[in-house]
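Lab manual, section 2.4: Encoding a predicted structure.

Procedure: take the sequence of the chain (87 residues), apply the prediction step described in section 2.3, and record the output as structure tokens. A sample record is shown.
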Amino acid sequence: GVGAVVDVTALPFDPGFEDTCRVLGVDPLTLALGGGEDYELLFSAPRSSDADAIATAIGSIVDGAGVRAIGPDRDLSSLATGFRHFS
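Recorded output:
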């Protein structure tokens, strides 16, 4: 009975990722949200200094269903075309 909201401004990118995407003419957020071949570990935990020491907070668990990707000024869920974990 829960969903998630991902803050795309908090996604950690490797150094040079965004520059490489621009050189290749690929939108970094589109690739990050739906490019596939993702091997980043994702988990949920209560917010704490211990959690902050070992992980990057990229969103929150919310009431409802599904995953929404939120950018600085709009809902970017339409860019998340990869595997649907919560469908």
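Check your result against the sample. Strands lie at 2-7, 59-63, 67-70.
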